[in-house]
Every structure is written in structure tokens, then in C-alpha cells.
Automatic annotation (TrEMBL):
Record lineage: Bacteria, Bacillati, Actinomycetota, Actinomycetes, Pseudonocardiales
UniProt keyword list: Membrane, Transmembrane, Transmembrane helix
Transmembrane segment boundaries: 62-82, 88-109, 148-173, 179-200
Name of the featured protein: Intracellular septation protein A
């Protein structure tokens, strides 16, 4: 059997949506390219990734589409505003602010966004999650608390990105913006674990499943 040499999706995403934009921006910057062209060029790798995903895997890459939308909106703000790089540096706000508001609003709907997304990412736990959702009020409360937390943190993330974009030196912001993404993701894990642990469902969700005799 031939060895499967395909690149794991997570590795491809980190390479094209995280590392490549930084490499493009700082590489062009080192060659003397202006801030605005370098920032626009840094959006190309995620867009290529979105096109690759759509053509090869016949599905829409949400990250790529979001990056495209944020880039177009920030470019429009640049054209209508100062014409400088600050609006482009703030393009992450066009991603995190709507996500935060949408997440907060979903906490009060039938199924909060964080529950829906987590359910889709854990296909092996769908049956357990659906059963707990229907029968366990503490489980439902945990996911609403998780969703509110994620929404609040996302809006805080947006505010920090906005401050960085308009106050820090231009060359600092792309690296700090990427670092903030990882910090935000890491910061969201402990409260998520805590709410599930407090609801008393941690072992049922993530413990080793019993194999039927």
C-alpha cells in the first residue's frame, strides 16, 4: 500500500493561514515594499488556501472566506479613510468583532454556537452530546456559559486588535496580531474545561468509552 503523504489539514491551515501571511509581509517589508501593498499581499496565501480547498475538497473554507471579507472591508476603509496601513492592520477586528457578537447572541437561542461547533468537531461524541443536551439542564447551562465567555473574550480580543492597529508601530502589528490569536485560543480553554467539569459531564464527554462485550 502506498504511503499517504497528504498534509494534515491543521498543518496546512497553520502554514498557509498563519505562517505564510507573516512571511509575505515581513519579506516584502525587508525588500522595501510599502506597508499597504505588503499587507494586501499577505492576504494572498489564505485566499489561495480557500481556493485550493474549494476546488480539491469541494467545500467552502470558512477561514479563507472570512479573510477575504475582512480584507475587502479593510481595503474599503483604507480607500475611504486615510489611505494608510492602519485600516488594513485592523482587519482582524472585522473577523473577531462579528464573531463575538454572533456568539453572544447565540447563547440565548435554542442551541448556542459553541455547542453546535463543538458537536460538529467531535463526531464520535454526537450521540452523547445530543443525549446530554436533551436530558441534562446543567449541561445546557454549561454550554450557554461557555458561549457567553467565548463571545466576551472575542470582543475583548477585537478591542485589543483595534488598539494595536492604531497605536503601535506598523511593523510590530502583524506578528502581535498573530500572537494574540494563539493567546486568545489558549485563554478560552480553561473556562471551557471548568464549565464542563462543574456540570459533572467531563468524564462522560471525554473519558475513555467502554467497548461493548
Amino acid at each position: 500500500m502506498a504511503e499517504n503523504r497528504s498534509v494534515p489539514p491543521l498543518v496546512r491551515t497553520l502554514a498557509l493561514d498563519v505562517a505564510a501571511p507573516l512571511a509575505v509581509f515581513y519579506g516584502l517589508h525587508a525588500w522595501g515594499v510599502g506597508d499597504v501593498p505588503a499587507l494586501l499581499a499577505s492576504a494572498v496565501p489564505p485566499l489561495l488556501h480557500a481556493g485550493y480547498t474549494g476546488l480539491r475538497e469541494r467545500r467552502v473554507d470558512a477561514i479563507g472566506v472570512a479573510v477575504l471579507a475582512a480584507t475587502l472591508l479593510s481595503l474599503l476603509a483604507t480607500l475611504l479613510g486615510s489611505g494608510g496601513p492602519r485600516e488594513l492592520l485592523a482587519r482582524g477586528v472585522w473577523l473577531t468583532a462579528p464573531f463575538g457578537l454572533w456568539t453572544l447572541a447565540s447563547a440565548f437561542t435554542r442551541r448556542p454556537l459553541c455547542f453546535t461547533v463543538s458537536r460538529s468537531m467531535m463526531p464520535g461524541r454526537v450521540v452523547v452530546m445530543d443525549r446530554l443536551w436533551e436530558t441534562n439542564a446543567r449541561f445546557r447551562r454549561a454550554w450557554r456559559d461557555i458561549t457567553i465567555t467565548w463571545g466576551a473574550v472575542s470582543l475583548t480580543d477585537s478591542a485589543l486588535r483595534l488598539v494595536m492597529a492604531y497605536t503601535l508601530p506598523v511593523a510590530w502589528v502583524p506578528a502581535l496580531d498573530t500572537a494574540l490569536t494563539f493567546v486568545t485560543i489558549a485563554a478560552l480553554q480553561p473556562p471551557t474545561w471548568f464549565f464542563l467539569w462543574r456540570a459533572g459531564v467531563w468524564n462522560e464527554l471525554f473519558g475513555r468509552r467502554r467497548v461493548a462485550a
